[in-house]
Amino acid sequence: MAPSTLSLFLTALMFAGVQGAVKDLDATCDAAADTCTNSVNNAIVLTCDALVSAGAKCHIKVGQDCNDPTSNSDKCVTGADCDTASSNKCLCGSGHTATASNICAPDTKFGGACTGGPDAQGNCDDTNALCSAASDGTCGCKSGYTGTDGQGCTISDNKFGGSCTADTANIQGTCADENALCSAATGGTCKCKAGYTGTDGAGCVVTANTFGGACTGGPDVKGTCVDANGVCSGATGTCDCKATYSGAVGASCVMDNQVGGTCSVSGQGSCTDTNALCTSLKCVCKDGYDGSAGGTCTKIADNTFGGSCTTTSVDAKGTCVDANAECPALTGGFCTCKANYDGYAGSGCALANKLGGKCTTMTKGTKGTCESAGAVCSMQVDGRCVMSGAKAVVASVTSLVLACIVCLLAIN
Hints:
By secondary structure, the chain is mostly beta strands. It has helices spanning 3-19, 389-411, and strands spanning 22-23, 35-36, 46-49, 57-60, 80-82, 90-92, 96-98, 104-106, 113-114, 129-131, 137-141, 145-147, 153-155, 163-164, 180-182, 188-192, 196-198, 204-206, 214-216, 230-232, 236-241, 245-246, 254-255, 276-279, 282-285, 289-290, 298-299, 308-309, 325-326, 333-334, 336-337, 341-342, 350-351, 358-359, 375-377, 383-387.
């Protein structure tokens, strides 16, 4: 075999593997991948008949010749019969309806006949189906769902609960809603990010009774809002924060001028904490300090991530204790992590998705993107890989024992 011929042969094999196989009449098939072709008479159009109870097979489509010299009168798609008395074509029998894909959909299945509409399930089998008319209707799918002729309705791709793809796990990817995250790079499912709740086939809305979400029991009182400092804007309204407090989706209401609260004037401005600065109208801890919303800014230990450091060479390790840290200035610097590493206040530096490193997850306290054995991600977004359960206890005890050994060695 000449090299060029061999190359073409291998290429054909490669594409056959990707695109599926070519199957003959009455052969078993995969509707998602295989192509059905009649080798004896390619004028007869076949389809992969997924409605065969014993498994999908290549059968003749509705409207195609079936009583030809090769005698294929028993090879019509499920629900069809060969009209040998007249047209010699496959025609749908009683209780079935011809669809656009030229198969026969059973009554009450997607594409099949129904009653009880319009805009209601009627007698369609699938709970996510709608019958198009009160009588002589056709079963379709409600918004956000996609149907397969003769079968049912599934959540449409890129809707909440539907399939999606992304460059990496837990970003929006192909999900249609800007507040959704795709759970995996391939074969993922659209979920909602922190602070949002989704409905299958639809999108993500702010979780009810949290800041920005729907509530009842107002106006101007807490109502059903879960935050102690929240108020419901109306009898049927939206959760907001009471006077002198501010909030954000997925967060609590914080008193103005406290850490995480609104403020005015740059510098310390109106922030009550002397170690906070008013930045973009929010009180944030200044460099070298750290604090949670509504709390206080406390000094980060020198030479740890975020703590002050010195160095004799810019962007070298300097006095930072972590081997993967850098001090960005000769004086007045604060320890940061070198490329591909990340840390948090008072910690060292770790690779993303490794123990101590940044991670994301669809559910707090599950593995998410963490790669280290026994690690779980502490938060949905901007979490940290930490040890879980008994392994965390073992790790803590081990650390304590090691610390004691170091102390004893130092004493001796």
